[in-house]
């Protein structure tokens, strides 16, 4: 029998969400072991200023409340958003690696939303195999969106930013 309370788990998840926001993180995963066959898996992800939480636990009391029938279609309708990779001004990753928006921690970012960039200007760095690869702007324009967070992994072809 489990000796932890659902209220303690909710407080734990709220603390994780606060930690995510306070430290400017985009994702946090934690597994909390209470005993044999009793654990709490929590994954908190921030996407476009929205924090979502996923819980997986063997006890029914740990399950999240089901969405109402009216909320499910609304969420499904909001999901098919524009694919940034298909945008004509998308700058995509030429490699797999870790993206950095500035030359070093605490330094001024290479580009910010609303900034004007010139063709060939470094807009970010992708570290791959301990090599810092400067990614140039493929065209001159204004940075409309930055689609990656500093220090996050990126895949080949992933959209990094939109320049119009």
UniProtKB/TrEMBL annotation:
UniProt pathway: Lipid metabolism; fatty acid biosynthesis
Record flagged with keyword Signal: no
Lipoyl-binding domain segment(s): 88-164
GO BP annotations, alphabetical order: fatty acid biosynthetic process
Gene3D superfamilies tied to this protein: 2.40.50.100
GO molecular function: acetyl-CoA carboxylase activity
A GO-annotated cellular component: acetyl-CoA carboxylase complex
InterPro entries (UniProt xref): AcCoA_biotinCC, Biotin_BS, Biotin_Carboxyl_Carrier/Decarb, Biotin_lipoyl, Single_hybrid_motif
Keyword set, alphabetical order: Biotin, Fatty acid biosynthesis, Fatty acid metabolism, Ligase, Lipid biosynthesis, Lipid metabolism
Transmembrane segments: none
NCBIfam families on file: BCCP (TIGR00531)
Described function: This protein is a component of the acetyl coenzyme A carboxylase complex; first, biotin carboxylase catalyzes the carboxylation of the carrier protein and then the transcarboxylase transfers the carboxyl group to form malonyl-CoA.
Name this polypeptide is given: Biotin carboxyl carrier protein of acetyl-CoA carboxylase
Protein species of origin: Gemmobacter fulvus
